[in-house]
Specification:
heterodimer; A: Glutaredoxin; 5 helices; 6 strands; B: 336 residues; alpha/beta; Rossmann fold; 4-stranded parallel beta sheet; 12 helices; 10 strands; globular
Chain lengths: 189, 336
């Protein structure tokens, strides 16, 4: 098992990137499901949908854990790439359920209406913008860090940079002396 | 130096160029060339051989130094104490996460993957000696992870019927063996009734089943008098063992609810604690519990189910939450 420190450094960056960025938006509660359908290969305009799936969908899922997100991919080289949003009734307040600690059973919510978004030949940002506009979702942004943490982070970054500088300086010096030694040895021999 | 044969160490030129180019060859600085006065007249073969012998002189000196270095390194290694235990780390100040938070992150990382194929993995780091007995056992989780295990039973008569009722997919003796010889294997586990075991051994199917880890043998408990009895235990049971000081197990499917996953983890940790306690004379302790999944990063568990006050406002800064969790659950998550 890798050491906890090395794991955590990597993990923090990962978690930050899944909370923030394109796709970090809270959907309204009347959306029950988002279904993507595109190809495995990126030919003929299926690159954007794939990028959307890889980059934006995890963020969307993180901020909307209750919404089903279904991805179907085909082996074809052509064809449509669509994102379908399923609307349904507003469910019973989830927070109340949490407080009573009822066993939450996965309830299949019936879809009343759907909206399609064409993803063909589009960038992920573009697709996300249309999704936000059509669902009237609220974009998420991380609350700013407290002043102390900000200062600490700056101090740590500066420290790390200095340490690296020192390290490289030493490495360079070592290399130079090594080369000189080699030359000297060659001449003497 | 491997290049010493083709390059003259004195003037750093190739012997071939030396032989060919007469003006470059006699440099007053290099002693070696002075020792070889008639190079331009000597045939090329002899010339190269002459260079190879001269260059071996300094190379020999280098070899001696290297040998010295090697011996000194060996001495240093000998001084070091051998490590008896697997390395453990102090992770008290590092962030730990409550189960529901971890599940939310993991579900986000696993979005779009099949909820039946992707699994939650639990890794338990153990403080233990490198040699000595290791934990190896089998557990029946409250909600089974591998529900689609296909079992084959070698038996005939009443036992075969009983096995079929218990849930075996393939049942039989000679006809099944012939199928296996032809390469038709559509099962994951094999159980053999003890009365047909001798007959089975004569078929020489070990070459087919052995590499797949499906060869029945009395030592692993797959040759029994009553196969039907252990089928139910085999379906839904999962094996786990300690490797390199870590016990790993698939603890749940991605579609499990937090409650189901918590129950599975609880049962597993209880049994693991008992397993560790059972090994006498060896100090074995749980150091860290880490939950990950097939495509997600690993999270150190704090031992809580839900972060207190977390469900009210989900936009708490992570630093605050991490600090609180670490402070509350500084010792390992044995409280799970």
């Amino acid at each position: 098992m890798p050491s906890p420190t090395s794991r955590m450094r990597w993990l923090r960056a990962k978690l930050y990137s899944v909370r923030n960025g394109t796709g970090a938006a809270v959907l309204p509660p009347n959306i029950s499901r988002i279904a993507l359908s595109f190809n495995y290969k990126s030919n003929n305009g299926h690159m954007g949908p794939r990028k959307f799936f890889r980059e934006c969908l995890p963020r969307l899922k993180y901020h909307n854990p209750e919404v089903d997100m279904i991805v179907t991919r085909k082996d074809a080289l052509e064809g449509p790439a669509t994102l379908t949003i399923h609307f349904s009734d507003v469910p019973v307040d989830n927070k109340l359920q949490f407080k009573k600690k009822q066993p939450t059973t996965p309830v299949v919510r019936e879809t009343i209406s759907t909206i399609d978004i064409d993803m063909l030949n589009r960038y992920p940002d573009d697709i996300m913008a249309e999704l936000v506009q059509k669902t009237s979702a609220t974009l998420y942004s991380e609350p700013p860090r407290p002043q102390e943490l900000e200062e600490e982070a700056e101090y740590l970054a500066a420290k790390r940079e200095n340490e690296l500088k020192e390290k490289y300086k030493l490495q360079r010096a070592d290399r130079r002396t090594g080369k000189e030694d080699q030359l000297k040895g060659a001449i003497l021999a | 130096m491997a290049s010493s044969i083709s390059i003259c160490r004195a003037c750093l030129t190739r012997p071939s160029t030396l032989v060919g180019g007469a003006p470059r060859l006699l440099r007053p600085t290099s002693d070696i060339h002075r020792l070889l006065p008639a190079i331009s007249t000597v045939p090329s073969l002899i010339a190269t051989s002459a260079f190879s012998t001269t260059s071996s002189l300094p190379a020999g000196g280098g070899a001696v130094n290297r040998a010295k270095l090697k011996s000194s390194k060996l001495k240093q290694v000998k001084k070091k104490k051998p490590k008896t235990h697997f390395k453990i780390w102090n992770h008290a100040e590092l962030p730990k996460y409550a189960l529901t938070d971890v599940m939310r992150y993991i579900r986000a990382f696993e979005v779009g993957n099949d909820v039946r194929q992707a699994k939650y993995d639990l890794a338990v780091k153990i403080y233990t000696q490198k040699n000595g007995p290791a934990v190896k056992s089998r557990i029946q989780l409250p909600k089974a992870v591998n529900t689609d295990i296909r079992i084959c039973v070698f038996a005939d008569g009443k036992k075969a019927d009983a096995a079929r009722e218990a849930g075996a997919v393939v049942v039989g003796t000679k006809d099944v063996w012939e199928q296996i010889k032809e390469g038709v294997i559509n099962f994951d586990r094999v159980i053999c009734a003890s009365d047909v075991f001798q007959e089975f051994q004569k078929t020489g199917l070990g070459r087919v089943l052995g590499p797949r880890g499906m060869m029945p043998s009395p030592r692993t408990g797959t040759v029994v008098t009553n196969p039907a009895a252990i089928i139910s235990a085999m379906i839904g049971a999962s094996d786990y063992r300690e490797r390199q000081g870590v016990v790993r197990i698939a603890i749940g499917q991605l579609g499990f609810s937090p409650d189901e996953l918590r129950d599975n983890i609880k049962v597993f940790m209880d049994q693991l604690a008992k397993d560790l306690a059972r090994i006498e004379d060896f100090d074995k302790r749980i150091n860290e519990v880490v939950l990950s999944s097939t495509h997600s990063p690993a999270f150190s568990l704090s031992g809580e189910f839900r972060n207190i006050g977390r469900e009210e406002d989900l936009e708490i800064t992570p630093e605050v939450v991490e600090g609180a969790a670490a402070a509350e659950e500084a010792p390992a998550a044995a409280t799970l």
